[in-house]
Write a structure and sequence with these properties.
homohexamer, alpha+beta, 5-stranded mixed beta sheet, 5 strands, about 30% helix
Chain lengths: ~140, ~140, ~140, ~140, ~140, ~140
């Protein structure tokens, strides 16, 4: 089993504000991230797929195919948006980077799952860098 | 003359839209950056000051002082904002990274200029990284 | 389960010298790192915590709390020190980066463990970069 | 158990072309990477070994020994070569980065395995960066 | 005057061998870089243009135009090639990174020069990273 | 004229303390950097030389020669030392990174100056990174 990881980039803005909390709870929990008009990041997305190496191609997966799926499902949907208003899934879900991870994993898992032969390649992990100070990982 | 550069970080969002252009000109010129609710970046700011090395301290400038000025004048003002709405100077000036550079240079030049002895240390240059793909420099 | 990782920085010096070895064994094993007055590094510390995403906040853990614990327990204790002389734990333990990892994991595990609800968030991993050429990981 | 990772660098060129495929299949699958005279990369190799910390040295493994093995077995063999023609193993195996990973793991595993006491340190993982956009991992 | 820099990436291989030198001089001067079948790098190209900020757009230059020129003139020509054989200009000129810099500056200068109004934007500088250990700059 | 820059690495420790200042002035000015037993950094040194490209070699300078001079004059002298005690020049000069820059420029300028033909290659600039947050430049 070999793991292949590709890095992708998108720039977006978000506001952290939960409908389940009062205004003062939002302010206290999210601090500056609750600022009303939002703020933004250059997100770096690492997509890891796992599989055996195909002996005739020497590859775990055709990278062109992976790029197409990630571009269509994730980058086109999230890049240069204000996540809270422009992306359907974040109208009622707080777009913390944790939740963006879960959403991306779901989008890619569904799409890659339909292109798989005998269980491989399999989506293994999403790693999403929000800033130089933090990143988040989800393995399904 | 030695140059000292410090790096600072802030995250903000912006929308590129010029009142001097029609809607279709805005769309054509700025592309996705004209998206109505904005998008964001992790900006990396390099501030360079120039001066001789003080023989008694071995320093071009007290870094604590530089940090305080940049924090107060730039980071607190721009970090976690939507530049177009939250920062006075960008209500009528397009917040391209070029214009953010000019604004930061002006803010710092005014403030540092008032703390100078015999002309030094002098603000030499602002370098502002917008994404991993581009950065801008201004020397006054 | 989502993993959240935060990066922290501290600068310290150390000397690799083991009381369990003779002087010539120390010289042979540690080479330049045995130099008598020590040398230093910019350490980069990655702290990973694991947990489910809280549906009301969208977060694995309040980052402000994590930052406070790491600052108090690790950064204030180790930053700008000579580890061998200034940090109690390394008076009789060689401050190799392996041992610094173990010590940081213990300090954080104790402190974070006391702030946990139903077992989460849990300290998952410490990764400590010593130079651009090497890093160490410990998972408890 | 502590994991120690060292980074190594080598520059090489390769051509992706599989004898198991027709010319048009090669062109379609590998695209520009099938260009007849090859192209190249600055590879970054991360070698991870795992083991307990020796209480008398504070180390998982003598880094000097690890460096010598990796230099002799991998860097000298692959650095500044055209993998397809200059490295025996890739005369009949496509030098995709997946296959380079498998080969490096084999070379290092054999050599490190012969230097082990009571099962440790053990070669844990190879991570090989091909470009800023992708990297591959293999754990044996 | 503001400086705008964009980063571009291409992967290529080259062999350092000068027709003006004997075989033994080539070996002695270029060392491993004289290896007969070449070796390769991930080149990072920084293109800097200078100009005043257009008050109606807030920009030094339309980045889309810059990207198109660099893609057509440089990246398509050099990416995934063996410079010595695949690029006309390096059939009789040693493709050291110094010479690749000069060639790129000439290609871009000619093309950007034809798109300029009243002297701006002007190609200011080329910076070309060959490895993590070295980079070259040329300002015309 | 082409500029060639090479990056070198060394790890050292230092204490900022000036004999020209009182103890309380030292504490106030240098803060944690005045800590009595010192602390350390991974320094990254960029050495830039300038010259025309030699038409027979395609190079500004033989990199092997540059590496040898920097290794002998700088890296061997400063790497894995406590600058204040182990390096003659810093026994009476505060080893701020400004002063380390000046010292390195002097060491390299003297040595490279003696290897020059018709004025080239010429030492152009020293850039010294102290941490991820600051770096210093000196051009003689």
């Amino acid at each position: 089993m070999v793991y292949l990881t590709r890095r992708y980039h998108f720039s977006a803005s978000h506001r952290l504000h939960s409908d389940a909390l009062s205004d003062s709870e939002n302010t206290q929990l999210y601090g500056k991230c609750n600022s009303p008009h939002g703020h933004g990041h250059n997100y770096v997305l690492h997509v890891t797929v796992a599989g055996p190496v195909d002996p005739s191609t020497g590859m775990v997966m055709d990278i062109t195919l992976l790029d197409r799926v990630v571009e269509e499902e994730v980058v086109e949907r999230l890049d240069h948006t204000f996540l809270n208003l422009d992306v359907e899934n974040f109208r009622h879900v707080v777009p913390t980077t944790e939740n963006v991870c879960l959403e991306i994993f779901k989008l890619l898992g569904d799409k890659l799952g339909s292109k798989v032969t005998r269980g491989f390649p399999r989506l293994k992990k999403i790693l999403l860098e929000e800033t130089q100070s933090n990143y988040f990982e989800y393995e399904g």
